[in-house]
Amino acid sequence: MPARGRCGCAEPRRLLPVLRWLPRYSLRCLRLDLLAGLSVGLTVVPQALAYAELAGLPLQYGLYSSFMGCFVYCFLGTAKDVTLGPTAIMSLLVSSYAFHEPVYAILLAFLSGCIQLAMGLLHLGFLLDFISYPVIKGFTSAASITISFNQVKNILGLQGIPRQFYLQVYETLRRIGETRAGDAILGLACLAALLGLRAMKSRLRPAARAEPLAARISYLIVWTSATARNALVVLFAGLVAYSFQAMGWQALTLTGSIPRGLPALRLPRFSSTAANRTVPFLAMVQDMGVGLAVVPLMGLLETVAIAKAFAAQNNYRIDPNQELLAMGFANILGSFVSSYPITGSFGRTAVNAQSGVCTPAGGLVTGALVLLSLAYLTSLFYYIPKAALAAVIIAAVGPMFDAGIFSRLWRVKRLDLVPLCVTFLLCFWEVQYGIVAGVVVSGVLLLYSIARPPVKVWEGDVLLVQPGSSLHFPAIESLRDMICSHALAAASAPRCIILDCRHVSSIDYTVVVGLAELLRELRTHGISLAFCSLQDPVLQVLLSADLEGFQHFPSREEAEWCGGAEPGSSEAATFSSSSQSSLLPSGLLQ
Q: CATH number of the domain that 520 lies in?
């Protein structure tokens, strides 16, 4: 009975992580969570407006997407630092798959949440492991460039610039003479201020308790200003725009009116009306296409990667499958309040961690601040210049470009440059093509290494063959051809071949059939094949197959004695066989 009681208590605590930390919540945690929640809230409001612009949606949808994730993650999340909401990457994907239509964006959030929830319930988080680091870096680096250049038109005050990257570059350069001086000056000034405040924060040394009160107050002021830099810059730009409007100058392109009030609580619409015709649900799903796979996977990847990074930094553990459940519920419930897909934000999570947040309860404060902004402050957003929001986006996504990854891969593993470059270049055409192509290329390279494992061959009185990894069905024909070519092409064919399987931990039935055929072929030429150093799982498979002429020995030395050669008499020359060496430049194999 006691054991059953303990299990019954553990299950709710596992599914509702809030039950783990809430009983230990203290007044000190409340103070720190309030400070962190306010700091993140001052960051998320201007970013939400900017990211809605990036997603091609009316600006209020950025705010609609910024509060539900905070509330849901407080109860279901396992990382104290993570904050959910709109991000630059997700906004770029929404721009590609929602066609600048709020109905599509909201439905995409609902369907993505359902997929993420199903993955969490089925424990399918391992699928993220098939997206390699070079693919991620190629995507984020390309996204940094495309997102930044997408905002250049707002910095310059240009209208009617196409969305496709190459056309965007062409049109922007062609029409650069139409730049509005007011937008350009304000946008560049905001960008410089944001970069300066970020640099200041990175070099800011924490004030010790022993230092004078004035020094600690100065540190707090500078730290707060640098942390809330997005809000301060947008506020300053709004005051400038309001001053110009009051004087009758139309020098800046403004955000315009944003509907006041909270979004209605309702199910997402499962059909759309366009050009006096109704688009049914299935047609909308077909329109979104591969986005229904890319959006939930990239959302999960971003959230889990951020959660793992900050959990390692702050010495606690996360439950990846619970994170999938939290993301799924956040997107599903978010779609009921007109949210587009959300994910973990690296920048706001960093602000949360640096503010000393104790628990996910800091998200409640952030969400409440967004709701207050929607209820009472939207009339003030009219005066926010688009150039200021563009500066916020550029400053946020700039660090995502990692120029050093190219040189690091060249130095460490040049072959990984292939999926990196494929992803990076194709993402400038279409994001989905870049990601899918990168994953496919990474998969092909992975399968190629399985199909052509490294094999060492020592030639002498006894031909010694040592595979460097497990043997699976794509590799057996290559292994057979190599053994036969060495055994039969030699001037004096060896009487015995030894297959050293110390590195082989598993084989499949196709390999067993291939080995049986190899035994028969060698026997017709008067050559015996012996196995040595077989691991127990492999030995059991081969014994169960009852191969004709199968013989095995515990060690290489015993196999060489039985083959009629002195132990160690094989020639020292080593031949590393893999078709990689013949099909690819040797430098790429480093």
A: 3.30.750.24
C-alpha 368/C-alpha 63 separation (Å) is: 11
- Coil/strand/helix, residue 314: coil
Assess if residue 341 is contained within a domain. Answer: yes
pTM: 0.75
For the CA atoms of 216, 218, 222, 223, what is the dihedral angle to 10 degrees?
A: 10
Q: 32-69 b/e with 16+ CB inside 10 Å = b?
A: bbbbbbbbbbbbbbbbbbbbbbbbbbbbbbbbbbbbbb
The backbone torsions φ and ψ at residue 330, rounded to the nearest 5 degrees and listed phi first, read: -60, -40
Q: Which residues does residue 279 pair with via DSSP β-bridges, in sequence order?
A: 272
| Distance (Å, whole) CA 82 – CA 90 | 16
Per-10-residue mean pLDDT for the chain, 590 residues long? 45 78 90 86 86 91 95 93 91 91 96 94 80 84 86 88 85 91 93 90 77 82 82 89 88 86 93 84 92 90 81 81 92 97 87 83 94 90 88 84 89 92 89 84 89 86 87 89 80 78 91 92 88 92 89 85 54 40 33
Cβ atoms within 10 Å of 176's Cβ, excluding its own: 11
Q: What pLDDT, on a 0 to 100 scale, did the predictor assign at position 587?
A: 35
Number of neighbours of residue 549 by Cβ within 10 angstroms: 12
For tokens 């077909």, name the residue.
286
Strands 528-532 and 496-500: parallel
Would residue 568 count as lying in a domain? yes
Distance CA(525)–CA(205), nearest Å, equals 77
The tokens for 47 are: 């970013």
Token pair in block for residue 493: 């064919």
- 553, containing H or E segment: strand 552-553
CA distance 556 to 533: 7
Give me the domain span that covers residue 574: 455-589
Specify whether 463 is located in the same domain as 368. Answer: no
Is 372 among the domain residues? yes
**Does some domain include residue 168?**
no
| Residue after which a domain boundary falls, among 351, 382, 413 | 382
Give the single-character DSSP code of 373.
I
Handedness of CA 97, 98, 99, 100 (dihedral sign): negative
C-alpha span between 306 and 346 (Å, rounded) = 6
Burial (CB count <10 Å: 0-12, 13-18, 19+), residue 4: exposed
| Of 550, 475, 555, residue with least CA distance to 508 | 475
Helix (H, G, I), strand (E, B) or coil at 49: helix
- Determine the pLDDT at residue 13: 66
Total count of domains within the chain: 2
Give the SS3 label for residue 516.
Answer: helix
> Whole-angstrom Cα distance, residue 313 to residue 92?
29
216 vs 222: CA distance, rounded Å: 10
d(CA 455, CA 574) in angstroms, rounded, equals: 10
Contact status, residue 152 vs residue 172, Cβ threshold 8 Å? yes
Looking at 350, 382, 414, the residue that finishes a domain is 382
